[in-house]
Amino acid sequence: MPAIHRKRLRFIDSLFAMLQTGVTPSERDVGDARKEIRLALKSGAEVRRMHRERQEKKQEAHQQSSAQIRASVMARAVGCCEVPSCGAPFSAVDPAEWDHLLGGSGQRRERQSLETTWAIHASCHRDRTENRPSSTWWWKQVKKHAERFGYSAMVAEAERRLP
After folding, report:
1. How confident is the model at residue 83 (pLDDT cuts 50, 70, 90)?
2. Cβ neighbours of residue 5 closer than 8 Å, sequence gap 6 or more
3. What are phi and psi of 51, to 5 degrees?
4. Could you tell me the residue ranges of all domains in the chain?
5. How far apart are the first and last CA of the chain?
6. SS3 label, residue 121
7. pLDDT tens-digit series, residues 92-136
8. Structure pTM?
9. How many Å apart are CA 120 and CA 141, to the nearest integer?
10. Mind spelling out the 3-state secondary structure of 80-118?
């Protein structure tokens, strides 16, 4: 018989404790317990396979979502850099790049949207990444961009980051 993970065992034990004290568990708790028991009875390889399939499905959904957001951002840009002080057309020499206004520490995926990304020149992207001329200057550009399109949450975020 496969070993039961401690976390699953604690959950199932808490459900039995509820039953012993006469507390009726919710339908959700009972359903979760059934799921945990079924998982506990599966082999480790089977659980790993299920986990891998779930991760692949999640990654595929993210890739589709990213492609849709990227296409919308590029359409909004209408062939020109979205940095307010630039605005020049994209070219083969300085092509468009998709930039996340909020990022780092794994936050990019969960906060990615039409409002939190923009299409900018490769050179502007490089400057922004290196904070040239300064971080404050770039947050002012983000604020102008957000105001132009009516993205109030990004305006507030830019104001929060400005000194």
Report:
1. very high
2. 40
3. -65, -45
4. 6-41, 78-161
5. 61
6. strand
7. 999 999 999 987 666 566 678 899 999 999 999 999 999 999 999
8. 0.64
9. 12
10. ECCCCCCCCECCCCCCEEEEECCCCCCHHHHHCCCCCEE
